[in-house]
Amino acid sequence: MTEIWGTSIAIYTFFAETSVGTYIISMLPMLFKVRELRDISSLALRLSWASIIAVLIPLLLHLGSPWRAYEIFISPNFSSPMTVGAWMIGLLIILITAIVILDNWYRATHALTITILGAAGLVPALIYAGYPGILLAVSKGVEAWWHNMSLPILSILIAVASGSALILLTYIILRRVSSMEINKTVLLYGSRVLLISLLLIFIIEITDLIVRTYEPGPGLAEFNKVLTGSLSLSYVGLQLFIGMIIPLIMLFLVLFNKVSASSSVMLAVSVLVLIGAFADRWNLIVGGELVDMVSVNVYRLGTFSIDLVEILASIFTWLFIISLSLVIFSNWKTETEVSEVKINV
Amino acid sequence: MSSQYLNLAETLPRIRGSPWIEKKSSRPRWAMVIDLRKCVGCYACQAACKMENGVPYEGFRTWVEIIERGTYPNVRRAFLPRLCNHCDNPSCVSVCPVKATYKREDGIVVVDYNKCIGCGYCIHACPYDARYKNPYLGTVDKCDFCSHRVEQGLLPACVVNCMGRARIFGDLNDPESPVSKILQSKHVAVLKPETGNKPMVFYIGLEEAVKGLPAKTVVINPKVGGVVEL
Questions:
Q1: How far apart, in Å, are the Cα atoms of B154 and each of B14, B109, B133, B157?
Q2: Does B80 sit within 8 Å of A140, measured CB to CB?
């Protein structure tokens, strides 16, 4: 088969959603006075910065001529959703970098500027989170999988879920490594955000699945075979079961106090949600590529080779940039820690 | 199978007073007619195109699909040459993020290889699967009606090399051109009219080539690697 957007674009959309999700969560305490998340706001901001920088790696790797990528800024075609997405990336990189720098070195003196810049970044962040759905919907080829009106909303919800999961995961690991106390309120509030976003994703995904099963249309029969064929492991196994149903059960148990929102439980939930979010993006992009147009509106199922090296290289680079961001912008101590230090002084 | 084709290959009305050739203009509007009744499936067009344009092994600017239908002894075999349709309303142009692909004033849709970043969005936007990623150029590539030849007053390589004279190329704005005359006098059909792209590659005999004998279909398409049984 002719693979146009494969592994690299699946990774790209995952990084993009994670970046926006962490950004939205980081802005909740600042803009909407969600005090329960104050402790992780600065950390979330650094994760968002690291992810938006990491977005560039798979994006440039996928281009045939990456050295000409600047053309999108000097000769843009704004009728293309891709142009809008690229400009949103550019805008977000500038905004998030400025906010992280201010937050790291001038937090006390420039609080208002941080709030204004943070608010200004919300709209491009939401556009950027939802734009993969619009980008894919424009396709006139064989990719009936991508012609789905719920994709932009689904993308924003996945952004929130994956962003929350990444923040909780990093927060718990950092606290455990430094043997510091974990704020239970953060875990509890994080579990609520995850539960709501996962529940909405689950409802939309299942509704889509049912509609697609009954919907007539060229190529759709082949797409439905994908679910029980090439993508059965990543769709049913990773995305639906491991990434959605198990975390939802665990979060419901936490909600009804059958299980406490302990760091171990939330650590497990976060890892599962991140695996599910990645599988979701993978199935979306690769699923669309899995059907070949054999002749005019005659389709067949194709095959796909997983580029494991590219996946591992991108994820390790992402983790490296995350570590680097925590070192460069090292003033990410939580408000609780800062107040503890002040009391000790 | 046949109904799938018939739904998508809508027969245009006999062209007298047709919108295609109503537009009088001093500039040419290049178009192609492919007479499927004359195509013998020799692949000369495919080979000539590769030679003329340096198309790599992995890609095709034009290709010929073979569609076999029915079971012995009731079998029908048809050849369907394919290429960029140089649409009047090309979806590839509107999605290109850097304006690297555009429609010229003579209607030929081209790719600027010095501008294309190779993102592949146009490949997904094309309903005719007419584009491919050239791994050596790092850009997208497709048929341009051999614009370098047309500019010198020559016919595209595929037209010149068609042994059955199945491919006819000409100017829609010239009522005396072979293409205009065919459109005025014969039934023609276009592929996937429902996309709204308004293709400028017309087929004669498309319905006859694909109708009937729906029991079993085999498609031989070099783009997807050989024989496909459906």
A1: 29, 18, 27, 9
A2: no
B195 touches chain A (CB under 8 A): yes
Interface probe for A, chosen from B124, B139, B198, B229 (most Cβ of A below 10 Å), is: B124
- Taking one residue from A and the other from B, the number of pairs with CB-CB distance under 8 angstroms is 131
Q: How far apart are the first and last CA of chain B?
A: 9
By Cβ distance, the residue of B115, B127, B135 closest to A75 is B115
A70 touches chain B (CB under 8 A): no
Please name which of A113, A96, A24 lies closest in space to residue A54, comparing C-alpha atoms. A96
The answer to whether A34 faces chain B, any CB pair under 8 Å, is no
Burial (0-12, 13-18, 19+ Cβ within 10 Å), B46:
buried
Q: Which of A7, A60, A65 to mutate to test the interface with B (most CBs of B within 10 A)?
A: A65
Across the interface, whether the CB atoms of B100 and A71 are under 8 A apart is answered yes
The DSSP secondary structure of B144-172, one letter per residue, reads -TTHHHHTTTPPPHHHHT-TT--EEEEET
Sign of CA dihedral A193, A195, A196, A197: positive
| Assembly ipTM | 0.84
Token digits of residue B81 = 């040459």
Q: What does DSSP assign to residue A5?
A: S
Following CA atoms A310, A312, A315, A319 in sequence, which dihedral angle do they give, to the nearest 10 degrees?
-140
Find residues 26-55 of chain B whose CB sits inside 8 Å of chain A: none
Distance CA A114, CA A278 (A): 31
The residue type at A212: R
The nearest alpha carbon in chain B to A76 belongs to B98
The identity of residue A182, as a single letter, is I
CATH node for A7-329: 1.20.1630.10
In one-letter notation, the amino acid at residue B160 is V
Token pair, residue A96, equals 């998030």
B218 contacts A298 by C-beta, under 8 angstroms:
no
Nearest alpha-carbon partner for A45 in A18, A25, A73, A62? A25
| Dihedral sign, Cα of residue A18, residue A24, residue A29, residue A30 | positive
CB contact under 8 A, B129 and A141: yes
- Tens digit of each residue's pLDDT (9 = 90 or more) over A7-59: 889 999 999 999 999 999 999 988 888 888 888 888 999 999 999 999 999 99
Residue A231 sits at the chain B interface (C-beta within 8 Å): no
Q: Is B121 on the interface with A (CB under 8 A)?
A: yes
pLDDT in tens, chain B (230 residues): 333 333 334 444 333 334 444 455 668 899 999 999 999 999 999 999 999 999 998 899 999 988 887 777 777 788 999 999 999 999 999 999 999 999 999 999 999 999 999 999 999 899 888 999 999 999 999 999 999 999 988 999 999 999 999 999 999 988 888 999 999 888 898 988 888 899 999 999 887 776 654 546 667 777 766 566 65
Which helix (H) or strand (E) segment is A178 a member of? none
Cβ atoms of residues B207 and B6 within 8 Å: yes
The amino acid at A168: L
